[in-house]
Amino acid sequence: AAAAAAPPRLILDLEALQHLDASEAGPLTRYAATIQAQRGDYNGKVLSIRQDDMRTLAVIYDESPTTLTERFISWGVLNPEAKGEVEESSE
Ligand code: C2E
Ligand code: C2E
Fold first, then answer.
1. pTM across the whole model
2. Which of 8, 20, 43, 60 has a CB 3.0–4.6 Å from the CB of 48, allowing a cystine?
């Protein structure tokens, strides 16, 4: 593909994810594995995800997207630049 697109802004660190406590990271680990399977992309150390996926994960974790984004950053599984990238739903 042409390299015209802006850099992806929500980037999961799949290696850091493996080192987290499964009781907290389990839903995120399963969600990321599902995206990898859908894309047929198993080789990466990072996985770019959609903003919509952070909103879906916020429902799963029963948090606001902003709070969950900050939590994932604090766990070291999401790039710090993601802070402020996920908009709250206005619905
Ligand atoms: P693909 O990458 O092979 O993904 C196939 C299907 O897996 C997608 O169909 C979607 O249903 C699901 N999927 C893959 N990755 C994600 C994800 O990060 N989040 C969610 N929620 N679902 C995911 P879909 O949406 O009909 O897309 C068809 C194809 O269009 C994709 O095939 C991909 O080649 C392209 N595509 C769609 N959106 C994007 C995008 O934001 N960026 C890029 N680079 N390609 C995209
Ligand atoms: P986004 O939806 O927030 O997706 C962010 C990044 O996640 C994408 O960056 C891509 O690296 C990855 N991604 C998301 N969905 C898929 C997917 O289905 N398959 C694969 N292989 N990767 C996926 P990217 O490609 O630079 O796209 C930036 C933004 O451009 C996307 O942000 C989305 O808003 C838009 N976009 C790109 N391709 C498509 C598309 O095929 N359909 C739609 N509806 N939007 C697209």
1. 0.88
2. 8
